[in-house]
# Entry
Amino acid sequence: MIYKVLPLFLLSLMSFESVPVIKENIKESTIEKNIITDPKLLAEKAKAEFEVKCKSFYESLSTENYSLPQFESFSRAFEGYEQLKLQGKIENEVLTIVDFSLSSSEERMWVIDMTTKQVLLQTLVAHGRNSGNDMASSFSNKAESYQSSLGFYLTGEVYQGKHGMSLRLDGQEYGINDNARDRAVVIHGADYVSESFVKTNGRLGRSQGCPAVSYKVHKELIQLIKDKSVLFIYHPSRNYVAKSKLVS
# Structure
């Protein structure tokens, strides 16, 4: 009888010993599942991955004779660009960054080919007359404010206006710049945007709210960025970040 009972006893003993192991495996699996699906952890993981992607892209940019925009303005521009691309709104994969945290006497507009990672152009750009003197500090989406509007735009159609060849802009952010077309905020050339004007006056002249550029580059610029490319006008404004749905 012993030879029959003993195997049954050993089998029973092994079964009892395996229970804690099975429970432990289930516990670990549950923890792993919670880690993967926890919204906060997923958001942190996505943010970390985006930062790595953005930094890698920034460091791979080819500038030739140009400088790079500051990383802060680029990272915000890159974030919004990626969202607009996912939404299928971009047809011309060029990103233009205007950094209004810089002096108007500096070349604070960059045009970047996002497919070749090449800085195509860097140039002077004016802000609205009621946005500030040399430094822009006040922004508006209202008609007749003569202030610049921050945020993301898509470039529209080319037309001939009182400033010659000009480019319409469509603001993509409600309450921030969505009145751009109605306000006639466009890219155009201007006599008051030049190095000679800066030397004489210590700053650029100012527009009625348009990101005006030099007549030396306005045609080249418009040809590069027309047909639904992205323009981002940056300033470290907490009010903008709080309202924007394209940057975090």
